[in-house]
UniProtKB/TrEMBL annotation:
Keywords, ordered alphabetically: Amino-acid transport, Cell membrane, Membrane, Transmembrane, Transmembrane helix, Transport
Coiled coil segments of this chain: none
Record GO cellular component, one term: plasma membrane
Subcellular location as annotated: Cell membrane
Gene source species: Mordavella massiliensis
The protein's name: Branched-chain amino acid transport system carrier protein
Amino acid sequence: MKKLSFKETIFVASMLFGMFFGAGNLIFPVSMGQMAGDHIWLAALGFLVTGVGLPLLGVAALGISRETGLLGLASRIGKNYGVFFTCALYLTIGPFFAIPRCASVSYTVGIERILEGQDQTLWLAVFSFLFFAIVLFFSLRPGEILTWIGKVLNPSFLVILGLLVVVALISPMGDPMTMAPEEGYESGALFTGFLEGYNTMDALAALAFGIVVIEVIRGLGVEQPGQIAKDTVKAGIFSSILMAVIYVLVTLVGGQSRGEFGISSNGGEGLALIADHYFGGAGMFILALMVTLACLKTAIGLITSCSETFSEMFPKSPGYRFWAVLFSVVSFLIANLGLNAIVAYSVPVLMFLYPLAIVLVLLTLFGSWFDNNRHVLRWTIAFTAVAALADFLRALPEGTQDALHTAPVTDMLGNVIPLSELGFGWIVPAAVGFVIGLIASRRRGA
């Protein structure tokens, strides 16, 4: 039975890392490190579960399922659900949040500091327009540019980041273990770190892009689903170790920076302050260039993937170019809301989608235990969705909650559903739905 050689495993591992790690993955560990204080290691552990572990499981689930993509996997619950979940996931990691975040992170980390004192609203508009003009140009002309940027940019970005981390560790600004944790990290740092990992969106990206890795492994001659999953996990271990090391070190550097700057409004600002502290103006320009190029690569890949997916899902639509232009325009408009606003509104959406994604992955990985019975799948997802919707409402910005008058509903559900106060109100309902599904499948003799 064919399995990947060591060289082939490293090749797939490199692809995995390049797909999952972008500049946006840096801002949340920095912010978490600043806020966690002396609970930094518990928070980092929780973050690694969702930021590293879940993406790996997502790719493995796709390998085991032998589906051609997310639509096929989600359609096991039902055709309509498959379309809904696929659209919701791609729009989240695409034009609604992840792609606009690429532009806003680039601006916040580099340009905002360089143009300090200027009209930031105007310059954000100018920068994001140029950013998405470049993204659209290459998205409409897919070719070697993505490969070139991936091979040249990622190593360059890691070298610059490595220098920053090494210098910061040699000359720390403070000791996180002497700092008091902020609210949310005082008694539940592990769970808060777990939820912070949602912000990487990598578990969602694994379901969207994991099929690319699976096809590469199949193209290398591996055919058995079990072996595909094993080779995926094996390759994933290499990329996961690198990602985990980067996450931990960046979290630590963020925690140390609190001794000098306090807590930044977002991780992008914190990263910029750290670079400026250690390297001055020159370091800021270098970091700004690297982060912008990294985000460009990610945005081009996301626009391309989302446009291809929607043109295939809706064959009667005007086609790929239409979706590429539309998603670029929408991303440009949302990017101009600013990084803080994008993060604030992405959190509730992720609180809704992540439980559905986690449960779908687990049901796929352990589907052989219940013969992938549709009753089990539907009952489990249905109960999970109700609880995840409650978490979504609870995570909305305070002003939005007041406008929608959601407090009575969320308070009632919070009192009824266990673990709701920790952001894990979906766990017990998912288990209940799974049991009901098993009973329903046996009664129907399915």
